[in-house]
From TrEMBL:
The protein, known as: site-specific DNA-methyltransferase (adenine-specific)
Similarity comment: Belongs to the N(4)/N(6)-methyltransferase family.
Superkingdom of source: Bacteria
SUPFAM superfamilies tied to this protein: S-adenosyl-L-methionine-dependent methyltransferases (SSF53335)
Pfam assignment, any one: N6_Mtase
GO molecular function (one): site-specific DNA-methyltransferase (adenine-specific) activity
N6 adenine-specific DNA methyltransferase N-terminal domain ranges (all copies): 9-152
Enzyme class: transferase
InterPro entries: D12N6_MeTrfase_N (IPR022749), DNA_Adenine_Mtase (IPR051537), DNA_methylase_A-5 (IPR003356), Restrct_endonuc_T1M (IPR004546), SAM-dependent_MTases_sf (IPR029063), T1MK-like_N_sf (IPR038333)
Keyword field contains Methyltransferase: yes
Domain DNA methylase adenine-specific, first and last residues per copy: 162-476
Species the sequence originates in: Loigolactobacillus backii
Catalytic reactions on record: a 2'-deoxyadenosine in DNA + S-adenosyl-L-methionine = an N(6)-methyl-2'-deoxyadenosine in DNA + S-adenosyl-L-homocysteine + H(+)
PANTHER family, per the entry: SITE-SPECIFIC DNA-METHYLTRANSFERASE (ADENINE-SPECIFIC), SLR6095 PROTEIN
Length: 530
């Protein structure tokens, strides 16, 4: 993380002081939108400085706006007109000439100036910034003041020359907004430690591949894609790594697009869609009656757990050959979708609830088919309460399409974590142990077991981790003789204490009124010795 913890805390505190009555779930849309516009503006300005050779952007634009726009579009995929850079907004604020229409006009012009080939990446990316919302203020003047505060705040964030600093800040804020946005925050955020486990397993031994394609069918903020790419040698090389994903929630889809670009991913390496993965397969799919799905080197996902879905008329869908997941639980539908799009030598990691390991009926049949086809490589049990606002324990399942062995590695990592205020957090040593154990594929007492197919078959294809990893800790045997002696010592101490108290009561100088109380106390204590 390029930003210090103190700087992160200061930025979060300052943001909260300026947000007024806006809920974090809505507030984040404006903050992230303004941050992204600043990022695009600075990228445009840096490029202009390298191209204009002393001319101003305004003078070039005045000579031929169409040619100037095409000039910037060719390189960046978008256009920001003169006077509409983020720095221009701040300059207008400094001389008291800023109005909310400055932002509205700039965003409108941005949408009109997107290169046709970049529309899938940029189009509608600022749509969640509703500049007419009463949440910003009751009138244009107060809404303008709110935007001025936010623009000035974001302008003060020193980000040096390191592009990753802005991306890291964005990722940090996503996590903070998730923690403060209620139960549905998990729809867009996977804790970095979990992403790290999945990424390291997916890329192990493959870091030097010259090209690499990633796919997340429920991509949320895109953190799984970014973390996985970060372990590849060619991360940051334009064209080397391709990012694919789908996200059904439009606001979250926008969040993901922004996150990828703010981490330095070029627009033409991004291929993501705002669509329902289960009802709308990847757009390549079936063409002219022929199934020609796109395949990926790595598939990763943290889909919504036990989601209700429409499972009718799925029998002919090639993604679900192992069976149709029940309509009340789409877990195996997401799993099969991802596996279907995996290359023959690819690797897949998916976060799922524990129920997929042992539930019966259709899910039991799907599980058996996956095991018989040698698709399941490992099952990793995670601690409870490590996901934002989700207390249930989860697993990471690792799958491959073309394994030569049929064993399954079980890892029970549920006990290794650091307890925090409202949740649990995997420590670095916990992450390292999980990854190292996966790579070694050996038994570890009370932690991991490499189960043969026959062993799994004897368990009726039930993959519940306690069937394979015994974490039971025996308590030390009770020494009855020592306990008896201790009880005797305690009784003798009690008798001595009562005798001492009786002696003290007898020595008291008393009045007639208190004699009855004292005699009653002596009888009560004395009765214990009869």
């Amino acid at each position: 993380m390029a930003l210090t913890a103190d700087k992160q805390a200061l930025i979060w505190k300052t943001l909260n002081e300026t947000r007024g009555k806006i809920e974090p779930s809505e507030y984040k849309n404006y903050i992230f939108g303004l941050m992204f516009y600043k990022f695009l503006s600075e990228k445009a300005q840096t490029w202009l400085d390298s191209q204009l050779r002393g001319e101003t952007w305004s003078s070039v634009w005045e000579q031929n706006p169409e040619k100037a726009a095409a000039f910037m579009q060719t390189k960046l995929g978008y256009v920001i007109q003169p006077g509409e850079l983020f720095s221009d907004w701040q300059a207008a604020i400094n001389v008291d000439q800023f109005n909310i229409t400055n932002v509205a006009d700039a965003l409108g012009h941005f949408n009109q100036g997107i290169q046709p080939g970049a529309k899938a990446t940029f189009e509608g990316i600022f749509d969640d910034m509703d500049l007419t919302s009463s949440r910003l203020g009751s009138n244009t003047q107060t809404r303008t003041k709110t935007l001025m505060d936010w623009i000035s705040l974001i302008d003060q964030i020193e980000l040096d020359e390191d592009a990753d600093v802005l991306g890291d800040l964005y990722e940090y804020l996503i996590g903070m907004f998730a923690a403060n946005s209620g139960a549905k925050a998990g729809e867009f955020y996977t804790p970095h430690q979990v992403s790290d486990i999945m990424a390291r397993i997916l890329t192990a031994g493959r870091e030097d591949m010259p090209t690499y394609s990633l796919y997340d069918p429920a991509m949320g903020s895109g953190s799984l894609l970014l973390t996985t790419a970060s372990y590849m040698k060619n991360d940051g090389v334009r064209g080397a790594i391709k990012y694919y994903g789908q996200e059904v929630i439009t606001t979250t889809y926008n969040l993901g697009r922004i996150n990828l670009m703010m981490h330095g991913v070029e627009y033409n390496d991004i291929h993501i869609h705002n669509a329902d993965t289960l009802s709308s397969d990847w757009p390549d799919g079936v063409q002219s009656g022929v199934d020609s799905p796109r395949m990926f080197d790595a598939v990763m996902a943290n889909p919504p757990y036990s989601l209700k879905w429409d499972n009718t008329n799925r029998e002919d869908d090639p993604r679900f050959k192992a069976g149709i997941a029940p309509k009340s639980k789409a877990d195996f539908a997401f799993l099969q979708h991802g596996l279907y799009h995996l290359k023959q030598d690819g690797r897949m990691a998916i976060v799922l609830p524990h129920g997929v390991l042992f539930r019966g009926a259709a899910e039991g049949r799907i599980r058996q088919a996956l095991l018989e086809n040698r698709n399941i490589s490992a099952v990793i049990g995670l601690p409870e309460k490590i996901f934002t606002n989700a207390g249930i324990p989860t697993i990471i399942m690792i799958l491959e399409k073309n394994r030569t062995t049929d064993d399954v590695l079980f890892i029970d990592a549920s006990k290794g974590f650091e307890k925090q205020k409202n949740n649990n957090k995997l420590r670095q040593e916990d992450v390292d142990l999980i990854v190292e154990t996966f790579l070694k594929r050996e038994d570890v007492a009370k932690y991991a077991h490499l189960a043969s197919f026959e062993e799994i078959k004897e368990n009726d294809f039930n993959l519940n981790i306690p069937r394979y990893v015994d974490t039971f800790e025996e308590e030390d045997p009770v020494d009855l003789v020592a306990v008896s002696q201790e009880l005797g010592d305690i009784n003798r101490d009690i008798e001595q204490s009562e005798a001492d108290l009786l002696a003290m009561i007898s020595d008291l100088a008393v009045t007639d009124d208190s004699k009855v109380i004292i005699e009653s106390a002596k009888q009560l204590l004395g009765g214990h010795h009869e």
